[in-house]
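Protein Entry — a single chain follows
Fields — amino acid sequence, structure tokens
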Amino acid sequence: MKAVSWLATVAALCVVLVGPGAHAQAKKKAATKADPKAAPASPGAKVDPKAAAKADPKKEERTGPAKFDSKEVPKLEGKDAEREATADRKRDEQIESLKKIIPKIEDGNPQKADMLFQLSELYWEKSRYLYRREMLKFFDSQKAAEEKKNRGEKVADPKEDHRES
């Protein structure tokens, strides 16, 4: 028992003098002194996650999918929303101009391939923009429905609508 308390004191001094890394090493030493049956882990040794979960009762293994917190969704407000709307208008203009130019270029011309690629990239960017806008609407409606449910009202769950994107 004296050895464990002595090691705890050394660990505390290591934290103060050396830093938190030394504290972890001293803590490991204290654990092996307290439990002589525990095998020392080498730095390159692989650890079985099930065995680690059994050994550490504080750490519970997560079950099921990760939860998404809609409160952390970034909102487009002010200048960011204006910039994105302006970029979308410019993107639409570029799409229209490419649609007019591409049919005039001969097949087999490398420029036509480049322009088709540019057009596809513009469509992809537009799709991402529309998807983001749709998801922001969905999260807003989901938040409003959750607030109504908390007040005791019966509300149908909102559904995602991706027709535009």
Observations:
- The chain is about 60% helix and 0% strand.
- The mean pLDDT is 74.
- The helical segments are 2-17, 20-34, 49-55, 79-101, 110-151.
